[in-house]
Amino acid sequence: MAVKAGEGGEQGKRNTMNRLLAAARVEFARKGLAGARVEEIAREAGVTKQLVYHYYGSKEGLFVAVLDESSSNIMSELVNLKVEELAPPQAMRTVLNHFFDQYRFDPFLGSLALEGIRYHDAHQTPRNHFLEMAPALINKLDGILLRGAASGDFRADINPRLLLASASLVTTGWFTNRYSMSALAGLDTDSAEGMATWRQYSADFVLASISLGAKKNADNT
């Protein structure tokens, strides 16, 4: 039976919104913002269509909420990774592998990310959890870089913000640009071999670019 607005108190409302976000996430990932139907989302969540509009105002409002929750979960996982006791190269590889694995183990994240990119390119969106949490992740990478520079593993001139941007593109591009990646790498992006190969290669590539050895080699050319 579809639930009504306000049923079950504040905890009931929170549970209902969680079901709505979960159902909407799948619908938007499969059909995109234009193709998704509020009726299907409401039915899957066990609520009325009117309740969806009551909570989120519009289909677009629900989509933005889904993007915000997804980015919040992604950033929280990365910021809370326990890497401080690892040697700098291992710590950085752990973060890079987690970039990849978040998409690897979530069948909807790549499609949702692509739809989010298209939406943000065409709309002015309010400040969200991704932007709010980015400084914490940048600081985490900067801490690894500083330790790596002190230990002689990494160059001392690495911009952590630029590193985060380039590393995220290199690792997650396997899932957000499947056609080009498959054609250029000669690997099936959905295959176990393709994923294992790119997971290893992308981390190796980023680590090589920030290693002290890369700087020395460049100075000698």
Report on this structure.
26% of the residues are buried. This protein is 77% helix and 0% strand. It is built from eleven helices and no strands. The longest helix is centred in the N-terminal third of the chain and has 27 residues, at 9-35. Helix 5 runs antiparallel to helix 10 (192-210) and helix 7 (129-151) packs across helix 8. It has 221 residues and is mainly alpha-helical. It folds into two domains: 1-57, Arc Repressor Mutant, subunit A; 65-219, Tetracycline Repressor, domain 2, CATH 1.10.357.10.
Structural topology:
Layout: H1 9-35, H2 38-45, H3 49-56, H4 59-79, H5 88-104, H6 109-122, H7 129-151, H8 160-176, H9 178-185, H10 192-210, H11 212-219
Helix pairs in contact: 1-2, 1-4, 1-6, 3-4, 4-7, 5-7, 5-8, 5-10, 7-8, 8-10
Pfam family, one: TetR_N
GO molecular function, one term: DNA binding
Keywords: DNA-binding
Give the helix level as a range of percent.
over 70%
Can you tell me the CATH architecture of the largest domain? Orthogonal Bundle
Major β-sheet, in short?
none
**CATH class designation of the largest domain:** Mainly Alpha
Secondary-structure element order, N to C? HHHHHHHHHHH
Fraction in beta strands: under 5%
When the domains are counted, the total is 2
- Count of discrete alpha- or pi-helical segments spanning 4 or more residues: 11
Q: For the terminal residues, how far apart are their CA atoms?
A: 71 Å
Q: Assign the CATH superfamily of the largest domain.
A: Tetracycline Repressor, domain 2
Overall number of strands: 0
GO molecular function: DNA binding
Pfam families: TetR_C_29 (PF17938), TetR_N (PF00440)
InterPro entries: Homeodomain-like_sf, HTH-type_TetR-like_transc_reg, HTH_TetR, NicS_C, Tet_transcr_reg_TetR-rel_C_sf
DNA-binding region: 37-56
